[in-house]
Amino acid sequence: MSLTPVKISQEVLRVGLVSVSDRASAGVYADQGIPALQDWLTKALLNPVVAVTRLIQDDKDTISSALKELVDIEKCHLVLTTGGTGPSRRDVTPEATQAVATREMPGFGEQMRQISLQFVPTAILSRQVAVLREIDDHAALIINLPGQPKAISETLEGLKKEDGSSLVSGIFAAVPYCVELIGGPYLETHEAIVKSFRPKTARRPIEA
Ligand SMILES: Nc1ncnc2c1ncn2[C@@H]1O[C@H](COP(=O)(O)OP(=O)(O)OP(=O)(O)O)[C@@H](O)[C@H]1O
Ligand SMILES: Nc1nc2c(c(=O)[nH]1)N[C@H]1C(S)=C(S)[C@@H](COP(=O)(O)O)O[C@H]1N2
């Protein structure tokens, strides 16, 4: 049986981008989290992206409400948070994320800490998690990223050698297949930024 060729990259990704920062949300400094997330996704994805953004304070209920709204009402397939993953009292993003989770995806947190250790020894201070939120007719992957704006590309993209080949694989390599498995769009990436992986049986033929 031959698969029907599909036009690549036309399925729309609805993505929620949440910057969790007391100071950026209060206007003490300009938020760099959402722009960094948007820039990276624009660079990395071949699909059209619709982004729904939230800039909020480090408050557990506020974060959980934003996540629920982005998944249940805005129907995002993927939600990326940045900030509030450390050990300070006000860092509660992982707890707020777990509060809306139906299942945990521990591999993402493990891999992000491994990647980040290549950049900073304090990577082990990040308690970042990834979870699924599954409701009746929809599901989303929610991933916590650290608050340092540079941590966004570091963890999503990983670390490359001078010749451009991968030294440590970024976590986004596994995101397209995960999003597909939970019922979201078929995502494709620019291989020079991050090479996404899916088993051969799950790959779609490229249109000639
Ligand atoms: N949204 C942001 N925009 C710009 N820089 C940020 C942002 N969030 C964090 N940073 C920078 O990264 C550092 C670590 O992020 P973290 O999430 O721990 O913030 P924080 O120190 O708790 O402060 P705040 O919540 O007020 O941003 C911050 O101290 C700040 O220098
Ligand atoms: N890739 C990457 N990961 C990183 C960092 C970074 O600069 N780059 N900063 C670390 C630091 S200093 C802390 S305290 C933790 C938690 O950061 P957060 O509270 O901003 O989420 O993330 C860590 N992970």
Automatic annotation (TrEMBL):
Its EC number is 2.7.7.75. Residues 16-166 form the MoaB/Mog domain. It catalyses: molybdopterin + ATP + H(+) = adenylyl-molybdopterin + diphosphate. Keywords: ATP-binding, Molybdenum cofactor biosynthesis, Nucleotide-binding, Nucleotidyltransferase, Transferase. Pathway: Cofactor biosynthesis; molybdopterin biosynthesis. One of its GO terms (molecular function) is molybdopterin adenylyltransferase activity. It comes from the Bacteria. InterPro entries: MoaB/Mog-like_dom_sf, MoaB/Mog_dom, MoCF_biosynth_CS, MPT_Adenylyltrnsfr/MoaC-Rel. Pfam families: MoCF_biosynth (PF00994). SUPFAM superfamilies: Molybdenum cofactor biosynthesis proteins. One of its GO terms (biological process) is Mo-molybdopterin cofactor biosynthetic process. Gene3D superfamilies: MoaB/Mog-like domain. CDD domains: MogA_MoaB. The keyword ATP-binding applies. NCBIfam families: molyb_syn, PRK09417.1. Belongs to the MoaB/Mog family. Catalyzes the adenylation of molybdopterin as part of the biosynthesis of the molybdenum-cofactor. This is Molybdopterin adenylyltransferase. It comes from Jezberella montanilacus.
